[in-house]
TrEMBL record:
InterPro entries: YbaK/aa-tRNA-synt-asso_dom_sf, YbaK/aa-tRNA-synth-assoc-dom. It comes from Streptomyces silvae. It comes from the Bacteria. Residues 48-171 form the YbaK/aminoacyl-tRNA synthetase-associated domain. Gene3D superfamilies: YbaK/aminoacyl-tRNA synthetase-associated domain. It holds the Pfam family tRNA_edit. This is YbaK/EbsC family protein.
Length: 184
């Protein structure tokens, strides 16, 4: 984690910065999960204007692509029913929505969820959606490369700031499935 912390000038335990997190993320961090105590989650305060992956890595360095993960909301459709799910892949990859995700959800079609749906259903800001604090009923699909990271940088639920968590901690979140081939 030291290498990640050295990149950021403002890092502290997330449990002491709950006011900077969206309510669902703050609640999940405070409660902990899967034996992961709140003290294992670090918040780094960053400029919301550079929250998107390209701007973030341009500012902090391309090496973050190997330790940063993106969380995207997808919508699978079958017979008039829509299933929302979240997918987490390393920032240097993209989600295989029409292959792996669609098959795993058992839907005929899968697409990225519209921004307004992703925001209203998660209670998080677009561009900062975190796998922590998502609705417990949602499937949370995680690429093994994310779980294999000792420490991974993820969204904080807000465009302002990121969280640093152990990669294996994400596999312990409610609804989590580690899915081979998710990130391509």
């Amino acid at each position: 984690m030291r290498a990640l912390l050295d990149i950021f000038s403002d890092a502290s335990p997330a449990a002491g910065r709950l006011d900077l997190l969206t309510p669902p993320v703050a609640k999940a961090v405070e409660a902990g999960w899967g034996g992961i105590p709140a003290e294992s989650v670090v918040h780094v305060d960053t400029d919301p204007e550079i929250a998107d992956t390209a701007a973030f890595t341009e500012h902090y360095g391309p090496e973050l692509l190997d330790t940063s993960a993106n969380c995207v909301v997808v919508a699978g459709k079958r017979g008039g029913e829509t299933t929302l799910a979240a997918c987490v892949v390393l920032s240097r990859t993209r989600v295989d929505v029409n292959g792996v995700v669609r098959r795993h959800l058992g839907t005929r079609k899968a697409t990225f969820a519209p921004m307004d749906v992703a925001v209203s259903e998660t209670g998080m800001e677009y561009g900062g959606i975190a796998p922590i604090g998502l609705p417990a009923s949602w499937p949370l699909l995680i690429d093994p490369a994310v779980v294999d990271q000792e420490w991974v940088l993820i969204g904080s639920g807000s465009r302002r700031g990121k969280l640093i968590v152990p990669g294996k901690a994400l596999a312990a979140l409610p609804g989590a499935t580690v899915l081979e081939g998710l990130g391509v």
